[in-house]
Amino acid sequence: MAQCSTVLLTTEEKSLQADIIFEGKVTSQSCYVDAAENIHTVNNVEVTSVIKGISIPHHLQVYTPGGILADRAQLYFPGLNLQVGEQGMFYCTQKENRYYPVALSQGFVPYEIESEKSSAAQISAISPLNITAGTQEEITITGTDFGNTQGSGSVSFRNADNGGAGWITIAPGPHYTLWSNNMIKMLIPTYTQNGIKVAGSGNVKVTTALGETVESAEQLNIHYALSELVYNDAIGKISLAGIDTNGGYTLQMSSLFGQNQEAVNALKKAMSTWRCNTGINISLDTINYLHAIPSYNDGRSSVSFDEQGLLPSGALATTVISVSACSNEGIVNWQLSEVDLIFSSSALWNMGSGQPYANHFDFESVALHELGHVHLEQHNNNTESVMYYRINSGETKRNLFNDGGLDGGIEVMQNSINPGYNCGNYPHITPLNLSNCSLVGIEDNGQATNNTVTIFPNPSQGIFTVNWNISNHKNIRMSVYNQVGELISSSVYTGQTSAVLNLQLAPGVYFIELADKEGSVTKKIIIQ
After folding, report:
1. Which of 426, 406, 403 is nearest to 416 (CA)?
2. Cys-Cys crosslink for 400: which of 18, 406, 412, 513, Cβ 3.0 to 4.6 Å?
3. Considering the chain, what percentage of its residues have pLDDT values greater than 90?
4. Domain annotation covers residue 36
5. Going by DSSP bridges, is the β-strand pair 487-494/452-456 parallel, antiparallel, or unpaired?
6. Is the pLDDT of residue 443 over 60?
7. Which of 83, 110, 137 is the last residue of a domain?
C-alpha cells in the first residue's frame, strides 16, 4: 500500500529507523533558505515525554522541507506540514542538534484532543453539500449555540491526506468570513497559515467558542481540491505560467531516467493523458539529459530516479513545486515557476500497460498522480480517484474520468490562461492545441515514410475513409488507439487500398496505425 506515493511503514519499522521517539507539541515555526536556495521549516517543539532516546532537550527543533519565505514558496508531495498547536508522536533521526522526521509525512502521528461534546450546540444544515476546496468557494453552516464570537472556535473537516480517517482543524484565520451564534460562513481550505491542510469529503465538526464540539449528520462532498497559499493572513491563488520558450514547462530527464525506455514511455503516456484532457503545456526533453540531479529551485524542471538518496524512506515518488509571488493592486498571488519529480530507483515497478503483479506498483498510475500535483491538485477522498491519497501494489489508477481530478485540472488551466491579473514574473501559460497533444504514437515509423496514407474527413463525427498506398498491401493491419496508446480495435485488410471506419467513440484524439511486415504508419484522427 502506498500513501500518495509512499509505502506505509509499520510502527515497528519507524521505531527501528528512529534515533528518538517522543511526544510533543508544536509551539512556533519559522522558515529559512539553505545554500541550494531550498526552503525549510523549523518547527519548535515542546517535548512532553520521551519513548526512545536519551539526553533529549525539553525544547527542540524538528526540520521539515518546504514552506513560505518572502516572495517564494515550495510545496512537497508527500510532505509533512505541521501546525502550531498540533500535538502527537514524533519519530525522528538526529543529526547534530537537528531532528528530522522518519519517512517525512509518516514521522508524525497527530493526536486528536478529546473535547467535550456539546449538549446545546447543534448543526442543522450545511449548504452547499457539493463543493470544491482551495477555490475560495464558501459554505454556510447553520445551527445553534456556536458562540456569538469565534474566539478559539473552529471548524474541522475530514483529512484528505489520509482518506478521511482523521480530522484537520482550521484555526481562526482568513478562511472564516462569518461567525455568529447560529451561523458560520467559511471558504473550504487546502492551506492554512501553517502549511498544507486539505479538507476532504465527509462530515464536519464545529468546536464552539466554549471549546465544546458537535458533528454534522450531513456529509460534505468535496469534488476536487486545488492548491492555494496563505501568507500574511491572506489567501492567494496559484496559477500555471509560461516558463519555457513554448509557453509552458519542459521536463529534463536525468541520464539514468532517460536511458530507461520503459519508464520514458510510461511517463509519456501519463503526460499525454493530462495534456490531451486539460491542454496543459508540459513537454519532455528527450535530447538534453541532466548529468547531475538539480536542486529544487535552480530554474530547471526535471524528472529523475532517486540517484542521490533524496526520497524519504519508503517513498515511491515525490513532486516538489516551487512558486513565486506577485502583487497586483495589493493582492498577492502566485505562479508555478518550477516542478521536479523524483521516482524511486528501488521500487518494484510495472512499466508496461498491462496489469501489475501483486507486489509491483504501477508506474503510469503513480506518474498520473504526481502530474496531478503539477496541475496544482491536492488529494481527495474518492477511493477511485487518481488523486486519492494511496495506491495499492497490484492496482492501476489510469482513468481521469473516475473522479473530479480532471475537472480540477481543467479549472486550473482556465484560471491560468486568464487569471484576471498580471503577475509580471512570467507570462500566462499557453494551452496546447488538443489536436497535437499526445506524446504517444504521433511520429510516423521511419521505415514507412515513403508510403502515402490519407484520411478524410478529419475531423469527423466518427466516420473516416482511409486510403493507403503501401508497396506491400496484401495484408494490412489497421489498429485504432486512444491518446494514451491503448488498443481500441484492430482489423486485417487483404488486397485492399481503402476502408471506411465507423468509430462509435467519445469525442477526442485517436490514432490509426497501418502496419505490414515492412513497417508502419501512424496517423492522428479527431472525433468531434
Report:
1. 426
2. 406
3. 55
4. yes
5. unpaired
6. no
7. 110
